[in-house]
Amino acid sequence: MKLQEYQSKRIFAQYGVPVPEGGIATTPQQAREIAERLGKSVVVKAQVLVGGRGKAGGIKLAETPEEAETVAAQILAMNLKGLPVRSVLVEGAADIASEIYLGIVIDRAAKRPVMMASSEGGIEIEEVARRAPEKIIKVTVDPFLGLQGYQVREVAYGIGLDGDLIRGFLKVAKELYIAFTKSDASLAEINPLVVTGGRTLLAVDAKMLLDDNALFRHPELAEMRDLEEETPAEREARGYGISYVQLDGTIGCMVNGAGLAMATMDLTKLYGGAPANFLDIGGGAKADKVAAALRLILSDENVRAVLFNIFGGITRCDEVARGILAALEEIPTDIPMVARLVGTNEEEGRAILAEAKMITAATLEEAAQKAVAAASAYGART
Ligand code: GDP
Ligand code: MN
């Protein structure tokens, strides 16, 4: 789950990371009031879940409350990379001497958190990694020992900090690490971490990703989910308890089990196709859930074929087949459907689908190849 900048900053602040003073506004008038309260020049920042807001015009400085109101009105009317801006963060403008990057992510290969920093702050870390990878300093953290002082010093020296800034950096890095672990985050990033004219550190931007599988431990964080940032299809899926992620390919995939879904997508790619989605209908899916999943898949206009890959253990193949038929009755379509059903009650399931003139396959390889061929034969939807 992605958090907005202002939400990430609230969490960072709870753990002591210095963030600018400010408030959130959904109207220009509110932005003006926050600027009045702050009593100094402010920065008005679009709250949308995309990076590079600055370059896209979603971040503007304002000297006076009147100006804050004007620029807030402009930003609130924007679409940034397709997302409408519904709120702005109004903060005291920072006095920026230089910009640092500081982030913590889970390194899946090392199975540990890794802290990364760079003197090249304010630009996306991926870009630094491409252009000047030697400018990124990394340390891998032992989760049982936690982030050690010597590791942070190594990072601080590595990015060229000196004198009193090292002590300040030690403090911020440790606070960020605690915010990261306590929130079960998979990413906590400050970009830029600003060195001010007075040689203090300030988190001018903040980004956090939380591990969805740990949200049950953090009801207060789970509440931060912004329903309007999800696509309508993703929201509907969550309501049915279906894991669904929309992608940009043409082959809709309906699978039971996340691992099997990944394997199905891989094979689709291997045979020259592209999956339109990740979809796990979960174990024991009944007809109504299958119908809901099919409706979701078909609501994506890029879909030119649907691939069902069901391994019937708890989920019974005949139930799934009946679900598919029920869904097709509801939403008649000529989009080709390929099904591979194996496991409990597979014969019954296949017989039901054969009657509905669906393409069936005995193996996943065969099913993926048939789906790729069917999608290209079908062509674009009109
Ligand atoms: P992003 O573009 O979405 O990453 O948004 P950021 O919050 O990182 O802002 C982008 C850039 O705008 C920063 O790197 C700064 O250079 C600049 N910026 C942001 N806040 C302030 C501020 O308070 N004062 C000044 N002078 N510049 C700022
Ligand atoms: Mn940034």
In words, what does this structure look like?
This protein is of the alpha+beta class. It folds into three domains: 72 residues, ATP-grasp fold, A domain (Dna Ligase, domain 1), CATH 3.30.1490; 127 residues, D-amino Acid Aminotransferase, Chain A, domain 1, CATH 3.30.470.20; 144 residues, Rossmann fold, CATH 3.40.50. The strands form five sheets. Strands 7, 8, 9, 10, 11 and 12 form a six-stranded antiparallel beta sheet that branches. A four-stranded antiparallel beta sheet has the order 1-6-2-3, with helices on one face. Helix 11 packs parallel to helix 12. The radius of gyration is 25 Å and the shape is elongated. The model has no long low-confidence stretch (mean pLDDT 93). Guanosine-5'-diphosphate (GDP) binds next to strand 2, strand 7 and strand 10.
Question: What's the SSE blueprint?
Answer:
Blueprint: H1 5-14, E1 22-25, H2 28-38, E2 42-46, E3 59-62, H3 65-76, E4 79-80, E5 83-84, E6 88-92, E7 96-107, E8 112-118, H4 125-131, E9 136-140, H5 149-158, H6 164-182, E10 185-196, E11 201-203, E12 207-210, H7 219-222, H8 232-240, E13 243-246, E14 251-255, H9 258-270, E15 277-280, H10 287-299, E16 305-312, H11 317-330, E17 337-343, H12 346-355, E18 359-360, H13 364-378
Helix pairs in contact: 2-3, 5-6, 8-10, 10-11, 11-12
Guanosine-5'-diphosphate binds at residues 43, 45, 51-54, 59, 93-94, 96, 99, 122, 191-192, 204-205.
